[in-house]
Every structure is written in C-alpha cells, then in structure tokens.
Specification:
- Helices cover 33% and strands 20% of the residues.
- The protein is α/β, with parallel strands linked by helices and 469 residues long.
- The strands form five sheets. The chain has a six-stranded parallel beta sheet, with helices on both faces.
- Helix 3 crosses helix 6, helix 12 packs parallel to helix 13 and helix 13 packs across helix 14.
- The protein starts with a strand and ends with a helix.
Length: 469
C-alpha cells in the first residue's frame, strides 16, 4: 500500500478502486485542479457522489454537512460502497480509512467547484430558470420544447439549491446538447451563488412575487435576489407581466427578450383556455396546446417558446413536445374522481401562486360547485398575517362557492369574513373533513393549495373514498 499525506494528516491507501465505468472527464488530477488541493494520482474516477446509498464504484465522495447530518460520519460506509476518494473538511474523520482524501475548508463550496469544472468542460448551452413561481413548470416546458430537436438534460424534480444545482450539473451526460437548470432561493445571495456555479448562457426569470419573505424581506428584496440570475448572461428572457425586470436585465445581460401574453416582444397572436383550463396559443402561425392548467401556464409557455426560438428550435417541434409533456406532480394536476374534479396544486404556495390557482378555479367548472381549500403559506415572515388576509379576500371574490381555510387561513378568513356562509375554517387539519363533508357536492370542482409543509394532499385519500363511495 502507498502512504501519502494531505493537510498534515497521513493516510495509508487501500488498493486502488477501479471504476466499473470511468467518467469521460474525472480523474484524481482533475479533482485536484478543480479544488486546488489534494492528491494528483493519474487514475480515472467514476464521478462525484454525496450519497453512500446511490454512489457508483470509483466515485469521489463529497462529505457534506447539513443542519441535521454530517456525512463525515459515513466515510467508512462510503469506502465500503466503493468510494475511490473523499472530499472532506475534517481530515481527522478520514484518518485510518485508507482512501485518498481532498481536504477543503467547506465541502459544499467544493461541490460547487467540481460542478463548475464539469460544466465548463462539457461546454454547451446552459439555461437557468429562476423566479418566484412557476420554475418547475417552466423547466418542464423548456425540456419538452427542446426535447424533439436536442438532447436535453434537466433538473430532476425541484433540486434547485446549493446541493441540487451542483448535482444537476455533475450529472450532465457528455452527449447532452442543452442543460436546463432550475435555480431557487430562500436567502439573499443564493441566486448569485448558484448563478456563479452554473455559469448560464441563457437566464429565464418566470415571475416576481411574495416568496420566502422571512429571508428576502419584501417584494423589493425578492426582485433584487431573483434578478441576480441575469449577471453577464448572453441572453435574458423576462416576463412581460413584470416590466420592472426588463430594466434590470437590460443592464446586466448582453441581450434581452420579453415574453408573455401581451405587451411583449414574443407574444401570441391569440390565446385562451379550454373548458378544463388547458391553455392554447397561436405563435407565428403555430398552434400550441398544453396539458397544464391556467393562464399563468400560458405565460410560462411563452417564456419557453422564446427560449426555443432563440436556440433555433423549430416552433413546430416545440409545439409537439409541449403538447405531450407530463404534468408535474401536485402542480395543478387535474383528476376526475367519480363525479368530483380535483385540482391538486398542493406542492407549494405563496401569495402570487395562490392567486393564479384561484384564477384557474374561477375559469372552470361552470355550473359546478367550486371549492377552494387553502392551507398555510409558509416563510412569509412579518408579512404572514397580512398576506393570508389578502389572499383570503381574493378567494372570496374568485367565484368560489366554498372557501375552506386550514392552518393560518382559518384566522384570516374569520377576520375578513366573520359571517360569510361560504367560509369553512379550522386551524386543525384533522378537524377539516367533518366540517367540509356536509357542505360538499358530489360533482364539485375542488382546488387544493398550500405550502409544502402543510401536506394538504393528505386530504386526497379521504376525498377519493367519499367521491367513489
């Protein structure tokens, strides 16, 4: 066995781990180049991993530290799973394990450095998607629009933070021709950090609205944070519904396109919703139909259409791909359950997305009982009570026949409509169904909308049993 030392700690190497499938780029030397430290062994690696349960033999294992975990505690498990190297911030945890080790000040920063290194070597177009609402839907629209013409790699789910974005970049296959990367935030500076890691060529900003106000403060703070995505990009694509974004993007990006349903450089000649809320658009003689629901999704589609056109994707291909795209789970998913229609939009919520969901409910289900079931919007900080009251008022004028509030919406509805017979409200989720069931009609159209922490989809099995009984 070969002995070597890193950062003053000696290691005795176990026999070299040969990857079953070598990565086209990663070697010990290239990891050292990216991290500017560590062993420079002329051997290939399989890739980069942060999870001992999913790593491949020959991966370099990055030991991340989170609020409730420290992957340094799993270095032995990583070795046993076939790790060929470690990236750690605590060298003593790797002592005696016999695995070549890169010691860095911060393993999360190191993960980003590795991601940027592979992004640069891969070297093709990266599209970053940021914004208060609609990031995941717009990412999926972009993926569908490009997918008939190009080999696309895109963020899975909504892995859009300082761990998920680097992992998305690191998993770009060599043959991919475009990468679509979702970029999220909940604290100031996060978009700038993720933009620096991603180095996007094109930045798409979906919307500006009240989000994560605990960290971002107010709407001006949201605008400052989200607009960081435009810094030095070749092309910025901005929503025409937010003209304040255009000025910022123009100062930061090489070129800017505005896209939206009206007052935009890229806009449809006509658009509308069918009886079930699905958008259609006519753009440059091409007819688009979407499986998503709501006018807000039509606006998101225009952002994707603008990006596709800028990248040379034929609009006919974009239209064909978007027509067949899957609907992201719990993001306006439409389900017929017996006579009842469920609009499951319970994945997450903030004030702007609440209003968009209520707008959809008001546009569909003519002649049916319309029921809006609204749960707490989280991370609104000092504005939480005000924002819940404002959305409660919007719900009461949305055309809903029943406005059902759970969690923080109970107090908001009691305050703004203390005697409105349309209101059903309780702070306790477990008390909701006994209050709702006697008021619910068999052929109702029911909207579920709340922040992720509410897990409002817990109501779906009860609704299903009731509707199919």
């Amino acid at each position: 066995m070969t002995a070597f030392s890193t950062a003053g700690t000696a290691f005795s190497a176990i026999p070299a781990i040969a990857p079953d499938h070598a990565h086209p780029y990663w070697t010990f030397e290239r990891v050292a180049d990216a991290l500017r430290t560590g062993p420079r062994i002329p051997r290939p690696l399989a890739g980069v991993s942060t999870d001992t349960r999913a790593m491949a033999r020959g991966d370099v294992f990055v030991a991340l530290i989170g609020e409730h975990f420290d992957a340094h505690d799993f270095l032995a498990a990583a070795r046993d799973a076939g790790a060929a190297a470690f990236v750690v911030s605590d060298a003593t945890k790797a002592a005696g394990l016999g695995v070549p080790t890169y010691v860095v000040p911060d393993t999360l920063v190191a993960l980003g450095q590795l991601a940027t290194a592979w992004r640069r070597v891969w070297g093709r177009t990266v599209i970053a998607v940021a914004g208060s609402n609609g990031k995941t839907s717009t990412k999926e629209l972009l993926k569908a629009a490009f997918g008939r013409t190009l080999v696309v790699h895109a963020t899975k789910g909504n892995l859009n933070n300082l761990i998920g974005v680097p992992l998305t970049l690191l998993s770009i296959p060599s043959e991919a021709e475009v990468a679509i990367v979702e970029v999220g935030t909940n604290t100031p500076g996060e978009v700038a950090a993720l933009r620096a890691i991603t180095e996007p060529d094109i930045a798409v900003l979906t919307s500006i609205g009240e989000e994560h106000l605990e960290g971002l403060g107010d709407l001006a703070g949201v605008l400052r944070e989200e607009s960081e995505i435009f810094h030095r990009v070749t092309l910025a694509i901005v929503p025409s519904a937010h003209p304040e974004v255009l000025e910022i993007a123009t100062a930061r990006a090489t070129a800017v396109l505005s896209a939206g349903l009206e007052h935009a450089l890229i806009a449809p000649s006509a658009w509308g919703l069918d009886a079930e809320g699905r958008p259609w658009l006519d753009v440059d003689g091409v007819h688009f139909t979407l499986p998503l629901r709501g006018a807000h999704q039509a606006a998101n589609a225009m952002l994707a259409i603008a990006a596709a056109g800028a990248c040379g994707v034929p609009l006919t291909d974009a239209a064909a791909g978007m027509a067949e795209m899957p609907v992201p789970s719990m993001r306006g998913a439409w389900e017929q359950i017996g006579e009842l229609v469920l609009i499951n939009d319970a994945y997450n919520a903030n004030p702007a997305s609440m209003r968009a969901a209520l707008d959809l409910l008001g546009r569909v289900g003519s002649g049916q009982q319309r029921v809006a079931i609204l749960g707490t919007m989280r991370e609104l900080g000092a504005q939480s009570a005000l924002q819940h009251r404002e959305v409660a008022r919007a719900a009461l004028v949305s055309g809903a026949d029943l406005v059902v509030g759970v969690g923080d919406f109970a107090a908001a509805l009691h305050e703004v409509a203390p005697s409105d017979p349309r209101v059903v409200a309780t702070p306790d989720f477990d008390a909701l169904w006994p209050l709702l069931a006697p008021r619910l009609e068999r052929n109702a159209i029911v909207l579920l909308k709340a922040s992720r922490g509410m897990r409002l989809e817990r109501l779906v099995p009860t609704l299903t049993s009731w509707a199919t009984a």
